[in-house]
Design brief:
Distance between the termini: 66 Å
Mean pLDDT: 87
Helix content: over 70%
Low-confidence stretches: 203-209
Number of strands: 0
Largest sheet: none
Radius of gyration: 19 Å
Strand content: under 5%
Order of helices and strands: HHHHHHHHHH
Number of domains: 2
């Protein structure tokens, strides 16, 4: 990466880190662009080189954080060459992401407030750097190497995301109705049920009467 590009990336990441800490500490509504640039130590004009407004940086922040968490889990998966089945790989990534979130409660609070499907779709195509593929690219590659074919794979991902995010929030933050480790086996079973529902190669034709 050229020095100029590296400096630009550093400034952008500094703004994102600043926004993250301020959104957590003060809340989104009470944080201004002036607060973000002051905390990041950059000029206000620099902000508008990368983001349109406060809502834009929030959207980019969520995509950035979601991508970071996924990329970390995917790198962890690469160390387990024995996990070759697509469904087992998704379960591994899911567990690793939940463990990361359990160790970063501020991130849980940010994502739980704003990580709608629309935001998540944006993060699917977010490319952290020239050398790092997007979540969508990785997911597509994993699907192509799966032992089964699936109909509506995007809808399948949506169902899994909604299930995991909807049930894990209280378990991570409040250990309710059960703690995360007790919840995981139930999530595994439910996610595998979703996989079974979307397996295209297991659909049989209904015989004519």
């Amino acid at each position: 990466m050229r020095k100029v590009d590296h400096n630009k990336q550093q400034k952008r990441e500094s703004l994102l880190d600043s926004a993250f800490s301020l959104f957590i500490d003060n809340g989104f509504n009470k944080t201004s662009i002036a607060d973000i640039v002051k905390n990041a130590g950059v000029a206000k004009g620099t902000f508008y080189l990368y983001f349109k407004d406060k809502y834009d940086i929030r959207n980019h922040l969520i995509a950035h954080k979601a991508s970071q968490v996924f990329q970390t889990s995917y790198l962890a998966l690469q160390k387990h060459t024995e996990i070759t089945d697509f469904e087992d790989q998704v379960i591994f990534i899911m567990d690793d992401i939940l463990d990361q979130l359990a160790n970063n409660l501020n991130l849980v609070r940010l994502l739980s407030k704003h990580l709608s499907w629309g935001f998540f779709k944006n993060s699917l195509f977010f490319t952290p750097s020239e050398d790092t593929p997007s979540i969508h690219t990785i997911y597509d590659s994993m699907l192509q190497n799966a032992n089964h074919t699936y109909h509506s794979p995007e809808l399948m991902m949506y169902m899994i995301l909604e299930l995991v995010s909807g049930t894990s929030y209280n378990s991570i933050l409040y250990q309710q109705p059960v703690g995360l480790e007790e919840l995981k086996p139930q999530l595994h079973q439910a996610v595998r049920g979703i996989f079974n529902q979307y397996r295209a190669d297991e659909i049989t034709d209904i015989p004519e009467t």
